[in-house]
Amino acid sequence: MGAVVLLALNRGALRPWRLGRGQWLRLGVISLSGVLGQQLMQAYALRHTSANHGGWILAATPIVVGAAMAAFFRERMGRLRWAGLLLGACGALLVFLSRQTVGGAVVPTLRGDAIFLASCGNWALYVILMDRWLKELPQRRITALSMACGLVLSAALCLATGHGRELARVSFPGWACLAYLGLLSSGLGYFFWNNGVEALGPSAAAAFLYLEPLAALGTGRVMLGEAVAPAAVLGGLLILGGVALVNAGRRLPAAPEEAA
Prior knowledge:
Layout: H1 2-9, H2 21-45, H3 51-58, H4 61-73, H5 79-97, E1 100-102, E2 105-107, H6 110-133, H7 139-160, H8 172-200, H9 202-206, H10 211-224, H11 230-246, H12 256-259
Antiparallel strand pairs: 1-2
Helix pairs in contact: 1-7, 1-8, 2-6, 2-7, 3-6, 3-10, 3-11, 4-6, 4-11, 5-11
């Protein structure tokens, strides 16, 4: 569903024959990591943790990206950014150790939290590969094509494992949830994000990511009855502080309007 929305809103992506063979191969690897792999990891993680734990841990993604750039591409990390990395790690550990209760019962979260943290590393790989391999192509077009490739890979995996038959047993509320996830969260979500990055620039747009864990915290409390653990909130705030320090002083490309 997300692929259909993105391809409809990005007509330029419907001319994929202009990509070279090497670009197609790179696009396939990126889709395997950032679309299929990311969706599978997070869907499985949510079965073993809470929504607000997942939201706080995902906020650490910029820290993981910064650490990966320093480790594998020798990007310079000053003392301030190393302090942010340490602060974010302490925050993530605090979230891991915090107890999550739902309806008065303690819910085990360690396995899901660990998988969410691994998905941050997987997303860091996606971001780095996107920047290193396909930087010369428009971001919106690559996003639409990577989602379409993810559709092909997901469908092949689903058919190969025999899970395609499960679609016949999905209830109407289930299809409504799938429509929300596919059309709004995936399709329009990616479309609005890419347009926001182009209009505001990456640095200004990234500031809105700080709202994601707060949204997960609020909706988890209202819709799922998840209790708000003070230790998890403190850990989340440490993560956000670490993200701010890691991104301090990093030069990001300006939006077209800013460059003009």
